[in-house]
Amino acid sequence: MKVHVQLLGYLAKYSPTKEETFWLEMEPEATLGRLLEKIGFPPDLEKMVLVNGTRSNEATRLAEGDEIFIFSPAAGG
Q1: Most CB atoms within 10 A, among 8, 23, 41, 57?
Q2: How are beta strands 21-25 and 2-7 bridged, if at all?
Q3: For residue 48, what is the domain's CATH number?
Q4: DSSP-derived pairing of the beta strands 67-71 and 2-7
Q5: CA–CA distance from 8 to each of 18, 28, 59, 74 (Å)?
Q6: CA–CA distance from 57 to each of 18, 51, 74 (Å)?
Q7: Residue 19: partners with Cβ closer than 8 Å, 6 or more residues away
Q8: What is the pTM of this model?
Q9: % pLDDT > 70, the chain
């Protein structure tokens, strides 16, 4: 299955295509955690993740065509 991923800002350096936005082939029943492993995203790096506009965690199951946005949490001031 294919999912659409967008790594915002400096997180784009973890993109396998070196682009902020890319499609990624995943195995059926894959989780968000598996996606993060596949692209080599550091597990200890703080991030916010939305799957189809809903805040998600690494246990979230992915489906064909899901839209995944990964970005750095905003700093307060």
Answers
A1: 41
A2: antiparallel
A3: 3.10.20.30
A4: parallel
A5: 12, 25, 21, 12
A6: 24, 9, 18
A7: 12
A8: 0.90
A9: 96
